[in-house]
Amino acid sequence: MRILVPLVVLSVVAAACGATGATVEEPSTTTTLGFSDSALVTFQSELGFTIDYPADWTVTEDPAGRIVTFTGPATGPGFNDNFNVVVGEVQNLPPIAYYDAEVQRIQSVLPDAEILEVADVNIDGVPGRGITLTASQNGIPVGISRMLFLRDGTAYEVTFVTTADRLGLLSKLIQRIFASFRFTG
Q1: How far is CA 39 from the centre of its chain?
Q2: What is the pTM of this model?
Q3: Top-level CATH class of 63-179?
């Protein structure tokens, strides 16, 4: 099983992740896409956020790396849909400069990246940037959807990775997960 996580070039800070909550929205209805479309549970992190994820996914916390990874069931040989939240410190950089630099960084780290969309987003009154792209990682064509926020010198990066052919199919799930993101700290 391979989990693809985009490279993150942040100096990371904050406390270790906390335990998961157990709020279930509605009964599960499994789809042919390999995820439960309706059953989401809430993860509460000591890193200052909550986010919903499919009930049948696995959560892995790496306190030293300041990353929380959510991994779905295998969707094909050697691949699992996944998303992660990375929390890090960004000193003396205005949000718009951080967001623009992140688009440039993606293009330098993933030379074959095709940016499909860059859009302004807002969570809890904090403006951010959404970026959707396709690229290749380890020889696999992937679809990546990201939300970036810079709040009081702390960067929150939410990154969903799937195979390129599933990006559009999973757009409803990705939107639900991203819309559930909330700051708690």
Answers
A1: 18
A2: 0.79
A3: alpha beta
